[in-house]
């Protein structure tokens, strides 16, 4: 742990952090300060992480740091339990969690900078499949993936160019090889011109040969295009077969689900004799349940209030019982003193028995009357309900039969609609695939056209440069020859060689004169020290002479006096 802390402190004291820590001050940092140090290190890797954590919620800080550490592929030690401890330690700024992270980050800062930079362009956004059904979203997503692949290719080429350096000798060899090849080509062209000029109708033959070359190139291009089209076609056919298989699986799955729904519906009907709720009936049933839930919550709140009041009354009852027991104890003490022990208890029992007897007698008479009255009311109520429900039950039977018929008709219409919709959907998907394929083909043709035009322009520019270079090189005019690229490179090479020669001579002269110059410098320093010593001696002698004169003048004054 001490080596780890020492490594962290040494790297934090260097640039670009520029801290001024030692082992003691760093180890005594508060959790918030330690989290700020971690945030500063992450900000050096990814500039988007420049945040003052005092202005950020702890949950946001932990989420931000965990997200970046996940992108940088930091793996905390341990299992899932340790992972939860790691998140908690990151929130509270725990040293056993922060120190290993800092050590890991500071070991590979440059590598992690590159990874964080690439993550901004290479982390793929996952688009839900239902959104990809939209053609615009699908095309945009495809363009996004193509741009990502293009970025990968360009980045690799850039890295290869950075690592592959060319020396001056290699450039010279390439230039000389190109010049030799150029001279050979010029000679071959001249020889061919001389041979062709002797042939009759050579201009017409050259024109025919040029046309033949163009047609061959066009034939190769068309063959390549034909092969590519055979490949876009094979891919589409495979996709079509895959979609057909998926459609068949979906149809089978839909049929299985419909069979399961019908089985469940029949089971429900056999179980309670009622129909399965559908549409508006289900909505009404849900609203009814919600209203009942609201009533239940209110009743539950009332019950909670009653329970609280019951607890309060129970506590009051306990206090009253305790007080009653104390009074009874005092009464028994007084009765014992008066010689009438048990009088109050006997009196209470007699009163209680008499009260119970009167209550039982009264309840018996009241119960018989109430029961007879209740039976009468129940009979009348049952008869009223029967008479009221008879037409409703009759109407309900008719409505149930009608509902069954409508449900059957609805199922038939639904099956017809589903089959028609499936057919239209398959036709639509086929047309969309064809349109998408044609669009892709059009885009490829357009890109190939633009690419070809760009290549032609580049070749024309290169040909123009080569022609100008050839004219300047072959020309007898010295001014034109000086404008040639070969002459300019030759001149630059000569200038650089002369400059290198002068610098080597200067270096040699400096090396040769280094020893004598150092001796001369030493002699000059010794001379300065000698002159400084003489100066000090002169000043000292002058001061002593002035003092002696003053003393002598003082003695003469005393003699005069």
Write up what this structure looks like:
The protein has helices spanning 2-13, 23-27, 31-45, 58-71, 80-92, 95-107, 109-122, 135-163, 168-197, 202-272, 279-338, 343-474, 478-483, 485-560. It has 14 helices and no strands. The model is unreliable at 554-561 (pLDDT under 50). Helix 1 (2-13) crosses helix 6, helix 3 (31-45) packs parallel to helix 6 and helix 4 crosses helix 5 (80-92). The longest helix is centred in the C-terminal third of the chain and has 132 residues, at 343-474.
Task: Give the structure's gist in a few sentences.
The protein is mainly α. It contains 14 helices and no strands.
Helix content: over 70%
Number of strands: 0
Determine Rg (CA atoms, Å).
Answer: 53 Å
Estimated structural class = mainly alpha
Calculate the terminal CA-CA distance, rounded to whole Å.
Answer: 91 Å
Largest sheet, if any?
Answer: none
Helical region count? 14
Gross morphology is flat
pLDDT under 50 segments (min length 5)?
554-561
